[in-house]
Amino acid sequence: MASFSSSNGEEDQVLVEEKSFVRTVILNRPKRLNAASYHMISRLWELFLVYEKDPYVKLVILKGKGRAFCAGGDVAAVVHDINNGNWKSSASVFRKEYRLFYLMATYCKPQVSILNGIVMGAGAGFSIHGSFRVATENSVFAMPETALGLFPDIGSSYFLSRLPGHFGEYLGLTGARLDGAEMLACGLATHFVPSVELLSLEAALHSVDSSDQAIISAVIGEYSELPMLEKQSAYNRLDVINRCFSRRTVEDILSALEQEATNEVDDWIQASLQSLKKASPISLKISLRSIREGRLQGVGQCLVREHRIDCHAMRGEVSKDFVEGCRAVILDKDRNPKWEPPRLGLVTDKMVDIYFSKVDDEDWEELKLPPRPNLPASAFAKL
């Protein structure tokens, strides 16, 4: 019989089910769509370290309670810190979170994330870096950061840049949403399992006395399906995406999309243009450069760089778009952010360069990744 334990602290934000050789970790803030808090991040860090060292544990399952796996970080708490002149407090939370993502990306045991709901921001970090990502018909993936005056972080410049063609640039710049079938098609998910089969899948995984990824994959495969993409799926427009989002600058991407719009009446093109035009101009330029740099870097390098950019965004010395975007979208919800600079043409290369440099503050601490000896072969490919 399974035994349950809970985190010692705020509202039992992380629950654990222990059964045979498997540990199932459950994100438990359903009313907040399992938004990642410092408490949740700390508990996950603690559990994953313990399970990696425990020879009895062969597999870790991660899932969320309610209608979300995890809808992102607790942005309201971050903005509260910034507005109170304490951005470094949030920077330290990001630092711990990024160390957790690196641990997951280089984990020595299989991690199966069950993505039966919303997967955004930090939720993508908790799952995409792991071994197996199981999508369902309820899955909704997005990296909506440019609408918040931020950029796709949590190591996404690593995994977005490795999606087919320039699909990663499209997702990162527009914040477009994907369903479970699209997640599988582009590689964000490794399997698609109908939600009615999830309990049976978990029961099957509980009986596996192995950390062999091929064996785990075969078990999940027994419950998997190959869903059809919707006709209007963005992934069916990969040829247009590659033509447009391969361009050198954000301005060139917009021009290419506008040219496509003159050649063809397509609601998808118009939606993409609207998303780009509503997003923070400086966030768009940071995002494009970050994803492009990620193509040539390992996951650790991506996380270190992204932490730098996050710190600059929270510090607000070039632009305060992050606070303004969160105000407009999450706090006041007027959906009318006042971006600064207000137009792409006013965002200079020097402005963008600052975000990629070390923070000029003697009390600021660069992200230091945890040592990872005896890595499995699957992790070496990410370094």
UniProtKB/TrEMBL annotation:
Name one molecular function that GO assigns to this entry.
3-hydroxyisobutyryl-CoA hydrolase activity
Q: Name one GO biological process term.
A: L-valine catabolic process
Protein's pathway: Amino-acid degradation; L-valine degradation
Per UniProt, the enzyme's principal EC class comes to hydrolase
InterPro entries membership: ClpP/crotonase-like_dom_sf, ECH_dom, HIBYL-CoA-H
The record's keywords, sorted A to Z, are: Hydrolase
The family database entries (Pfam families) matched by this protein are listed as: ECH_2
| NCBIfam families associated with the record | PRK05617.1 (NF004127)
Question: Which family does the UniProt entry place this protein in?
Answer: Belongs to the enoyl-CoA hydratase/isomerase family.
User: What role is this protein assigned?
Assistant: Hydrolyzes 3-hydroxyisobutyryl-CoA (HIBYL-CoA), a saline catabolite. Has high activity toward isobutyryl-CoA. Could be an isobutyryl-CoA dehydrogenase that functions in valine catabolism.
What is the name listed in the Swiss-Prot or TrEMBL entry for this protein? 3-hydroxyisobutyryl-CoA hydrolase
Species whose genome carries this gene: Eucalyptus globulus
